[in-house]
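Postdoc handover notes: sequence design on the structure in folder B. Input tokens:
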């Protein structure tokens, strides 16, 4: 997530940044539902190597959602710390440009 924030942070609004942990959870759940739907429809969309491949993929995505949920507060804090760190770096760069000690 930090690499994404470093790369795209300049174009994201504060609200979008705050929603990153939720977005990760949502997209993970969405692909899990897509795997389950494909399994129930006879594995016609995603390529599979065995009959229950998409069902296993769905189960893995559900486990990932559970993992995200268990770490959700840490992810939110990480986004907040990243923003504060970026603000500190920007202030320090301005200070250096003005001849300060930062």
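Designed sequence:
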């Amino acid at each position: 997530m930090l690499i994404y924030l470093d790369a795209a942070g300049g174009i994201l609004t504060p609200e979008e940044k705050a929603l990153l942990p939720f977005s990760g959870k949502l997209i993970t759940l969405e692909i899990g539902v897509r795997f389950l739907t494909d399994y129930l429809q006879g594995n016609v969309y995603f390529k599979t190597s065995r009959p229950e491949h998409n069902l296993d993929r769905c189960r893995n995505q559900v486990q990932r959602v559970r993992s995200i949920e268990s770490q959700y507060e840490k992810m939110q804090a990480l986004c907040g710390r990243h923003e504060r760190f970026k603000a500190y770096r920007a202030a320090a760069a301005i200070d250096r440009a003005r001849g300060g000690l930062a």
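Context for whoever picks this up: The radius of gyration is 20 Å. Don't rerun without checking with the PI first.
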